[in-house]
């Protein structure tokens, strides 16, 4: 799977936020780092066209995001920083079922997939629990399960571990490391980058460094010193 940024520019409220990003992401796991406000989330959100570039384009596996946002969103699952904001139904089972709507599956087929997903993600014991009573770690697990149920080729995760304690951070790290999907991970948790193949450092809307995780992280540390 190739995620291609072709000279991507983006403005928020008339202010440039991305200033010409070009890169081909082909590795299994890619990290995106950079200081607050540098444009990481904005860049991640162009991948499934949550933000429309003002210039340039994003192409995912040959599909131009601006021309076929639905097609791109079938390929790309997106995890937001606050998992709770991504949960739309009252209970775990209902929320997972909801994520399968619109795919043309029968009720029985949906139920079977939801049961399998809950078993796989260790959520079965919480099937009928109100989602808002789940811990942040469980909500993050649920949000990921909902995304994976739609069988995307790519998972874009925007600071998915921000709210997690150390134990849940480790569990999330394991889940991300085991993903068969291509992963684009925006994070301030630098230890998560030990598991990735390539890191992009974003600074002021541009790619300031791109390459081996250890080298790019060292550059970032120097930049922030
Ligand atoms: N919807 C919006 N409207 C106006 N400005 C925005 C909007 N979203 C983001 N921005 C601005 O764009 C810039 C880049 O924001 P972005 O969220 O992409 O940065 P980030 O690198 O992900 O930051 P952080 O590490 O704090 O999450 C910031 O200056 C931010 O204030």
List the helices and strands and how they pair.
Blueprint: E1 3-12, E2 15-25, E3 29-33, H1 40-47, E4 55-60, E5 63-64, H2 69-75, E6 76-79, H3 92-99, H4 107-121, H5 136-149, E7 154-158, H6 166-178, E8 182-186, E9 198-203, E10 206-211, H7 213-224
Parallel strand pairs: 3-8, 3-9, 6-7, 7-8
Antiparallel strand pairs: 1-2, 1-4, 4-5, 9-10
The structure holds adenosine-5'-triphosphate.
Summarize the structure.
The chain is α/β, with parallel strands linked by helices and 225 residues long. It has seven helices and ten strands. The protein has helices spanning 40-47, 69-75, 92-99, 107-121, 136-149, 166-178, 213-224; strands at residues 3-12, 15-25, 29-33, 55-60, 63-64, 76-79, 154-158, 182-186, 198-203, 206-211.
Keywords:
225 residues; alpha/beta; Rossmann fold; six-stranded mixed β-sheet; 10 strands; 27% strand; binds adenosine-5'-triphosphate; ABC_transporter-like_ATP-bd; Biotin transport system ATP-binding protein; ATPase-coupled transmembrane transporter activity; ATP hydrolysis activity; ATP-binding
Largest sheet: 6 strands, mixed
**CATH class (first level) name:** Alpha Beta
CATH architecture: 3-Layer(aba) Sandwich
* DSSP strand content: 25-35%
Which molecules are bound in this entry? adenosine-5'-triphosphate
Shape: globular
Radius of gyration: 18 Å
Mean pLDDT: 95
Can you tell me the CATH topology? Rossmann fold
Strand arrangement in the largest pleated sheet: 6-7-8-3-9-10
Separation of the first and last Cα atoms:
36 Å
N-to-C order of helices and strands: EEEHEEHEHHHEHEEEH
- Sequence stretches where pLDDT stays below 50 over 5 or more residues: none
Family: Belongs to the ABC transporter superfamily.
Pfam families: ABC_tran
EC number: 3.6.3.-
Protein name: Biotin transport system ATP-binding protein
């Amino acid at each position: 799977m190739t995620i291609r940024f072709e000279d991507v520019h983006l403005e928020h409220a008339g202010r440039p936020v991305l200033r010409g990003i070009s890169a081909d992401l082909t590795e299994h796991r890619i990290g995106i780092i950079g200081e607050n406000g540098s444009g990481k989330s904005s860049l991640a959100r162009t991948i499934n066209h949550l933000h429309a570039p003002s210039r340039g384009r994003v192409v995912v596996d040959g599909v131009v995001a601006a021309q076929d946002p639905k097609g791109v969103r079938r390929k790309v699952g997106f995890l937001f920083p606050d998992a709770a904001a991504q949960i739309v139904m009252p209970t775990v089972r209902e929320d997972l079922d909801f994520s399968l709507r619109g795919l043309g599956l029968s009720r029985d087929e949906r139920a079977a997939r939801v049961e399998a997903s809950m078993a796989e993600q260790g959520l079965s014991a919480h099937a009928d629990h109100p989602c808002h009573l789940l811990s942040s770690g469980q909500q993050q697990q649920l949000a990921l399960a909902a995304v994976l149920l739609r069988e995307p080729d790519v998972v874009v995760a925007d600071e998915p571990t921000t709210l997690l304690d150390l134990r849940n951070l480790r569990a999330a790290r394991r889940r991300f490391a085991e993903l068969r999907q291509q992963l684009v991970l925006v994070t301030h948790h630098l230890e998560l980058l030990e598991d990735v193949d390539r890191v992009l450092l974003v600074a002021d809307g541009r790619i300031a460094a791109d390459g081996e995780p250890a080298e790019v992280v060292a550059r970032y540390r120097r930049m922030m010193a």
